[in-house]
Amino acid sequence: MEIRPHRIIKRKSTKLIKVGNVGVGSNSPISVQSMTNTLTTDISGTIKQINSLAEAGGRYS
Predict the structure, then answer these.
(1) What is the pTM assigned to this prediction?
(2) 26 within domain boundaries
(3) Which residues is 18 bridged to in the sheet?
(4) I need a labelling partner for 33 at 20 to 30 A (CA). Which of 8, 50, 52, 58 fits?
């Protein structure tokens, strides 16, 4: 089942490249880079932000 059956999106076929161990292009999932915006001395706040990213589905490679 299409997510939007009324709007089928045709993706251009691209070549797979690796950035470190992350695949970009071809059939690779979309990757998003993120970072915290707390002071590095604010350990509790930084860990909260990291946990929030993980709960939202973020993972590291």
Answers:
(1) 0.55
(2) yes
(3) 23
(4) 8
